[in-house]
Amino acid sequence: MTIDQNQLSLFQKILLATDGTVTDLIALYTGESIRVKKIEQAIRQEIASPVLQCSGSTSLLIRKILLSGANGNYLFADSVFVFERFSRSIREQLLNSDKPIGLMWKDERLETYREIIEQKVGPCADIAAHFDLPESAPFVSRTYLIYQMGKPLGAITEKWPLSYFR
After folding, report:
1. Cα three-residue angle 139-141-143, rounded to 5 degrees
2. Quick one: how many helices (H) and strands (E) in the chain?
3. Residue partners of 29: CB distance under 8 A and separation at least 6
4. Mind listing the domains of the chain with CATH numbers?
5. What burial class does residue 96 get, using C-beta atoms within 10 Å of its C-beta: 0-12 exposed, 13-18 middle, 19+ buried?
């Protein structure tokens, strides 16, 4: 379902439109320290989606995380990255730490560009339990590509309950 901007709070509109790190924004909004909880992370040799501009089979980092604070989970993110396009430092941090990827890029002063390719509102039965919500609860989501030096590093879909950040 497309988004009716009138149903969103100002902060939700900011989350949808930002080209910055949502971890920092959520920390500011909640006044909490935000941490990453990895739900799933794996490197798979696969044929990437055409939007990632890879030829043939490539190493993809598949990652599902929750951004959480003292009062619970705030945001779910599902991402696919072209692993070899990251620096060695970021590859090691991704595999060995729970640091948010946006903060890794910020620390490394990585110049990136984000292109939002989808925004919507709808139920997300597969993640609703992480937020103690019924499977029919509506979630706001956005999907964007992250580019560095003209090539996509990956795609991220971020989702949060429509009832959050009011």
Report:
1. 160
2. 4, 6
3. 11, 165
4. 5-161 (3.40.1410.10)
5. exposed
What are 102's two structure tokens? 């946006």
Q: Which two tokens stand for residue 159?
A: 């989702």
Structure tokens, 98:
């729970």
* pTM of the complete model: 0.88
pLDDT one-digit tens code per residue, 57-107: 999 999 999 999 999 999 999 999 999 998 899 999 988 887 877 778 888
Q: Which residue has the tokens 């949060």?
A: 160
Amino acid identity, position 123: P
pLDDT, tens digit, 9 for 90 and up, residues 128-150? 999 999 999 999 999 999 998 89
